Amino acid sequence: MIWPKSTVAGVGLLLFWLSVPTVPLTQTVPEPSPRPETGYVSDSRYVNAFFGFLLPLPQDADLRDFALPSKGNSHSVFGLQAQRKGLTALTVNATQVTGNPTEDARKAAAGGKGASVKRVEIGGKEFWKSESDDESRTGTMHTLICATAMNGCTLQFMVVSFDGKLAKELRHSIESITFIDPAQAKILAGSNARLFPARVEAAPSPTASPAHIAHLRLGVVSGNTYTNDMLGFSFQFPPGWVVADKATQDKVVEAGHQFVYGNDSAAAREHEIAQECGRILFSASQYPEGTKTDEVNPLVAIMAFDSACLPGMHLPSSTSDGDTIRQVGAQITKSLSGTPFIGKGQNTIRVFMLGNRMMLDLSSGFKVDLPARKEPLEVFSSVIFTEDKDYWVMWLLMNGSQSGLDDLRKSSKVAFVPSDSAPDQHKTN
What we know:
By secondary structure, the protein is α+β, with helices and mostly antiparallel strands. The chain has two domains: 39-196, Protein Transport Mog1p, Chain A (3-Layer(aba) Sandwich); 203-427, Mog1/PsbP, alpha/beta/alpha sandwich (Protein Transport Mog1p, Chain A, 3-Layer(aba) Sandwich), CATH 3.40.1000. The protein contains eight helices and 24 strands. The strands form four sheets. A seven-stranded antiparallel sheet has the order 4-5-6-10-9-8-7, with helices on both faces. A seven-stranded antiparallel sheet has the order 16-17-18-22-21-20-19, with helices on both faces. A five-stranded antiparallel sheet has the order 11-3-2-1-12. Strand 2 and strand 3 form a beta hairpin. It is globular and about 65 Å long. It starts with 8 loop residues before the first helix and ends with a strand.
């Protein structure tokens, strides 16, 4: 295991990341009227065009976009992530005030654990602030929350980081916020700024039909074979591996969301979206959870996602359709970037036919820095997708070496059952 709350906990993170709505990459629309999420980001700053604030950004921190969906009265305003020395996430959320604005801001700063807060002044405005350090086997998790009342909303800035230096830099950024005329946001952002999040053709909000993911059966395990008759396939995994039961999988998903969001007001919203859109059907690791705390615990997992949550996303109709392959590969890579499964460097994308099914394989090798280790861990993964009428199905294979991943591919087999019930079996490679 290599990430807090186990490697498999990363599956819970992935379940959310892939439930974020995706749309075709080639379609754009005119710049929208300002709303809470409207802002501009450059290498040095983020400027919000609705609330009117300028947030300076740390330099040389290898920060990447972390755009989360908004829902109802809760708005995901801005987000960044990094994995320089363990995971770091910065999120800015706005929630409509339901009671006393000052009290709502105090509660938002306290977080779900009710941490002690103090009144501070940032940019000439009243803020409420809490800080905490939580020790774990992988290092110290630094948490900072600052909140204020603005424009009928509670505006919350939150940092969760295992990188002490970057946590301090982000704290300084938040404490250096200035408030500006919202109409001047684009100009103040600079000539090299871009719209955040990048706007694309409007797509329906993700709404999983109860007839789809809610009714999808989990499948059964017999020996070293997982079978899901409803989706029409079986999966053979290495004998002797430890299968996670449903209770463990449920804890894994919860752990993944708690790691990213903590107990802030948006956590329940994101968790709800993930549950509506996707489901972990199966996961197994070579070693029992908790026995390999300083290395990669080889893992296989199967997930299903409601196709309604991935509007405009389709596999190519042919293995020779290079344009669609590149587009879908870019979408998936962007969705997975920053998760514990895909590196930020070169990834390999290929498509192949498995029986009458089109499959897309996104493979990656990357290194992860951990506070508890002097040397980074090498991780090798393969994420394989196929598309059905109502679902996307995903197989994840992960190992600590390329040769180990290759062996895992050879020992893992998928068999689809076509309409004539004649099994068609193939290795995952």
